[in-house]
Specification:
By secondary structure, the protein is α+β, with helices and mostly antiparallel strands. It has 2 domains: about 100 residues, Gyrase A, domain 2 (2-Layer Sandwich); about 110 residues, DNA-directed RNA polymerase, insert domain (RNA Polymerase Alpha Subunit, Chain A, domain 2, Beta Complex), CATH 2.170.120.12. The chain is built from 5 helices and 12 strands. The strands form 4 sheets. It has a 4-stranded antiparallel sheet with strand order 1-2-12-9. Helix 1 crosses helix 5. The model has no long low-confidence stretch (mean pLDDT about 95). The structure holds iron/sulfur cluster (SF4).
């Protein structure tokens, strides 16, 4: 399989994947459910005067994405296995994820302004919690990202239109451009295969999909950067393949 990056930032990555559909699906599944992250797992509530039940509060805390140092924390022997976070607040006002105090300065909420609850005048909230490393096969709160992919579009010009502007304006994604007085499908990766062009001008253009070529979009929830997720997914896939090969012998 081959990966070519189209764009990336610390939250999202878009890339072209070339390989069999089964590998594309394996990569998507491993990214979403087997790459480990840190999430709050045990909460000890010392005082809760908010309108929210302890159980709901604990559930909300579990869903706060925490930055994860994937090289330091490990579920297999090396490195610490858990981090303690505490919170103490007095109303009035909202209690936000940024109010959590972590023992590890790296393991902090990715989004500071996630509201946890609201406290009225003089009401108090105090708890201590433990965050552990886990994966989404165990619980969805450990999932690091959302991944989608679509087939790579194939847009072929069969002949040139009489009215170029009218033809090009049919495409909502602006896929077509003019090069040397000829209309060519240029911005192919933007095509969503809506077939508007081929339905309106079947004699001019043909739309299909490429075999074993996909466009992936990965959106991180914040615990890990997209490249960290992909790197870890690659490691996991290699490990799984080796394990399978050893069992076949
Ligand atoms: S299929 Fe839709 S998006 Fe793709 S080139 Fe045709 S009109 Fe544009």
């Amino acid at each position: 399989m081959k990966i070519k990056m189209i764009s990336k930032c610390n939250k999202e990555a878009k890339f072209i994947f070339e390989g069999h559909a089964s590998y594309a699906n394996a990569l998507r599944r491993v990214c979403m459910s087997e790459v480990p992250t840190i999430a709050i797992d045990i909460v000890e509530i010392l005082k809760n005067d908010s309108a929210m039940y302890d159980e709901i509060l604990a559930h909300r805390l579990g869903l706060i994405p925490l930055r994860t140092d994937i090289k330091m924390y490990s579920s297999k022997g090396k490195g610490p296995k858990e981090v303690t976070l505490t919170l103490k607040a007095v109303g009035p006002g909202y209690v936000y994820s940024e109010d959590l105090k972590s023992r590890d300065p790296f393991v902090v909420p990715y989004f500071g302004k996630m509201p946890i609850t609201y406290l009225d005048q003089g009401k108090e909230l105090e708890f201590s919690c433990k965050a552990i490393l886990g994966d989404a096969k165990e619980h969805a709160k450990f999932s690091p990202c959302h991944v989608t992919y679509k087939s790579y579009p194939k847009v072929e010009m069969l002949s040139q239109p009489k009215n170029a502007l009218e033809f090009m304006n049919v495409c909502p994604k602006k896929v077509f451009s003019v090069e040397n007085d000829t209309i060519v499908p240029k911005n192919i990766e933007a095509c969503d295969m809506c077939s508007l062009c081929s339905e309106r001008y079947p004699e001019l253009v043909k739309v299909g999909r490429k075999q074993d070529k996909y466009i992936f979009e990965l959106e991180s929830f914040g615990q890990l950067e997209p490249m960290e997720i992909l790197e870890k997914a690659r490691e996991i896939l290699i490990e799984k393949t080796k394990e399978m090969a050893s069992k076949v012998k």
